[in-house]
UniProtKB/TrEMBL annotation:
This is Glutathione S-transferase. SUPFAM superfamilies: GST C-terminal domain-like, Thioredoxin-like. It comes from Medicago truncatula (Barrel medic). The keyword Cytoplasm applies. Its EC number is 2.5.1.18. The lineage of its organism: Eukaryota, Viridiplantae, Streptophyta, Embryophyta, Tracheophyta. It catalyses: RX + glutathione = an S-substituted glutathione + a halide anion + H(+).
Amino acid sequence: MADEVILLDYWASPFGMRVRIALAEKGIKHEYKEEDLRNKSPLLLQMNPVHKKIPVLIHNGKSICESLIAVQYIDEVWNEKSPLLPSDPYQRSQARFWADYVDKKIYEVGKNLWTKKGEEQEAAKKEFVEAHKLLEQELGDKTYFGGDKIGFVDVALIPFYTWFKGYETFGNINVEKECPKFIAWAKRCMQVESISKSVPDQDKVYGFMVEIRKRFGLE
């Protein structure tokens, strides 16, 4: 029986982008279903009844929720091509640690850059730069966090780069000036086909951020 793979997603979601990249990197054929987050489909509510959020990976009728869990699942099930997690248990634990760091730190601090003002925004700018400098240290002299090829941390982190035009514009920050090594890594990632064809253009995401700011009276 052929695998039936469906992805419930929303185009601008950095979390959904992770799953898209993993599927593309592994060459897995799948059906992409765009969700209306203000009018969620019965399928989404059925497949993720706990959080009712995208992305949801559906494999032969069974749902896998939460983006990092879905990426790990993809890596384990389709393990004959392009491994994302290292085979060594210690290295695997470290990759999971940094992916978790991205989840807990980069998303929240990035959101504060473009949704807050005044002192809160200034604090977010400082925290954002510090977080990316720390990631630069972890990257070291490697081409990617995964080494010579993209790995789990690269897949977890690169989607947020699509939001950088908004982060920089609304947060009045120049990430390349502060963290040149990080931006060089991001540009290398964008040359990888599985990434470039799976993520939207920064300008499109920026337009989406402008609309959200208008909707919530931040403009």
